[in-house]
Specification:
258 residues, alpha/beta, Rossmann fold, two-stranded antiparallel ribbon, 11 helices, elongated
Length: 258
C-alpha cells in the first residue's frame, strides 16, 4: 500500500492542504483539450487516471475517473461522473477494459511511475495518452531567474519523457503542445506572458511545485517580482514575452500504442 495523506492523496503533494480552489484556477484550455482528444482518437470508453477535478476529461465519451484525493474528487463539476477512490499502481479493472486511457499532468506525482503506466497499459486496448512536462525546459524564460529553486524542484519531480515511453512499451509518439498566451488553464508555465498572476497566492496554490518551495524563497520571489513589475524593470528585460502568441515550455503529449 502507498502512504496516503489525510484526504487520500497518494502522490507527493498534499492536496488536503493545497487543493482548495484548484478547480477555479485549473480550467481546461480548449486548445490543449483539442490536442488531447485528437490523441485519444475515436475511443468511446476512456479511463482518466489521477483525474483531479476533471480537467481535460472528454465530455462526449464514457469516462471512468480515478482520483485518490478527496479534496480533488469534491471539486469535480456535476456534469462529470464521480471519481473512483483508487491509485494508478493498483487499478481495479480487468485487462483491456477501456478503449483508451489518459493521465493529465499527474505522472510526476506517482510513487511508482513504471507500475502505474504498466497498469494503464494493462487495462487499455488502445492508446494511453499522457500529458506531461519535459523536466528540462526547452527554452529559457523569466521564471528561471526569479525562482530557480522552483525550476529545480520541478526538474526533479518530472520524469524524463524517455522514461514514460519506455514504461508504456509498444509504439510511442511524442507531440509538442504549445502554450497559448491566454491559456485558461493556470499551470505555472501558462503565465509566461502574465507575470502579475504569479503574485496571487491562489494561483500559486494550484501549482503543486510551489508547496515544496521554502517560505523564505517564496517571499523573496514575491518581493523581487513585484518590485521589478512596479519599476518597469521586468518589462525592460522580459517584455517580449507579453507579445508571444504561444510558448514552448516543455508541455508534451506522449501517446503509447500497443
Amino acid at each position: 500500500m502507498n502512504d496516503r495523506t489525510s484526504d487520500g492523496s497518494a502522490g507527493d503533494a498534499d492536496y488536503s492542504r493545497i487543493g482548495e480552489g484548484y478547480a477555479r484556477i485549473r480550467q481546461p484550455d480548449p486548445r490543449i483539450a483539442a490536442q488531447i482528444l485528437d490523441a485519444i482518437g475515436d475511443a468511446r470508453t476512456v479511463l482518466n487516471v489521477g483525474a483531479g477535478a476533471g480537467s481535460y476529461e472528454p465530455v462526449d465519451r464514457e469516462v471512468t475517473a480515478v482520483e485518490p484525493s478527496a479534496s480533488m474528487r469534491a471539486q469535480r463539476p456535476v456534469h462529470l461522473s464521480r471519481a473512483i477512490d483508487a491509485t494508478a499502481d493498483n487499478l481495479p479493472f480487468a485487462d483491456g477494459s477501456f478503449d483508451a486511457s489518459m493521465a493529465s499532468v499527474t505522472v510526476h506525482q506517482w510513487p511508482d511511475l513504471v507500475r502505474g503506466l504498466g497498469e494503464m497499459r494493462r487495462v487499455t486496448r488502445g492508446p494511453v495518452v499522457i500529458l506531461t512536462f519535459d523536466p528540462v525546459p526547452p527554452q529559457r524564460w523569466w521564471l528561471m531567474d526569479y525562482a530557480p529553486e522552483l525550476i529545480e524542484i520541478e526538474g526533479r519531480r518530472m520524469p524524463p519523457v524517455e522514461q514514460i515511453e519506455s514504461a508504456l512499451g509498444g509504439t510511442t509518439e511524442v507531440r509538442t503542445v504549445m502554450i497559448p498566451h491566454d491559456s485558461i488553464d493556470g499551470f505555472g508555465q501558462a503565465f509566461f506572458a502574465r507575470p502579475e498572476r504569479l503574485l496571487e497566492p491562489e494561483v500559486r496554490r494550484a501549482m503543486s511545485a510551489w508547496s515544496f518551495v521554502p517560505e523564505d524563497v517564496v517571499a523573496r520571489f514575491e518581493r523581487e517580482l513585484r518590485s521589478d513589475l512596479e519599476s518597469g524593470e521586468w518589462d525592460a528585460r522580459y517584455g517580449e514575452f507579453r507579445n508571444l502568441a504561444e510558448f514552448d515550455a516543455g508541455l508534451r503529449i506522449v501517446i503509447g500504442r500497443p
